[in-house]
Amino acid sequence: MNIAALLLPALAGAAIALQTVLNSLGMRFLGLGRLIGFSGLVTSLLGFSAAAVLLARLEVTSRAIVYAVGSGLIRAFVLAAIVLSARMAGLGQTLSLLIASQLLVGLLVD
Question: Which of 88, 85, 108, 109 has its CA nearest to residue 97?
Fold first, then answer.
């Protein structure tokens, strides 16, 4: 098995835990709306930069735009849900429920 196939998901899981802490702190100082706005701006800039560097030909079709908008809406919901849940129930419970739901939905989708 490819080592990257094992390492990348493990690092992503650790990053989610750290992101939840940063989101809670960010919400304390910025509020939920501004946190989502700034986070979305950074994500967009990094995404556009990566696409410009890594892709030989950018695909900008109406279908691609619909998928991108849908993904952004889901990302905003997930960020808000995690931040609010972590503040109400704590980091451990939030991450446990997040991981359990990802596993269950992943099994249903596959």
Answer: 85
Question: Does residue 15 contact residue 8 with C-beta atoms inside 8 Å?
Answer: no
- Residue-wise pLDDT tens digits, 4-31: 777 887 888 888 878 878 888 888 888 8
> Cα–Cα distances in Å, from 79 out to 12, 33, 39, 75, 88?
15, 11, 9, 6, 14
Distance between CA atoms of residues 66 and 75, nearest Å: 14
* Amino acid letter, 64: A
- Residue 74: Cβ within 10 Å count: 10
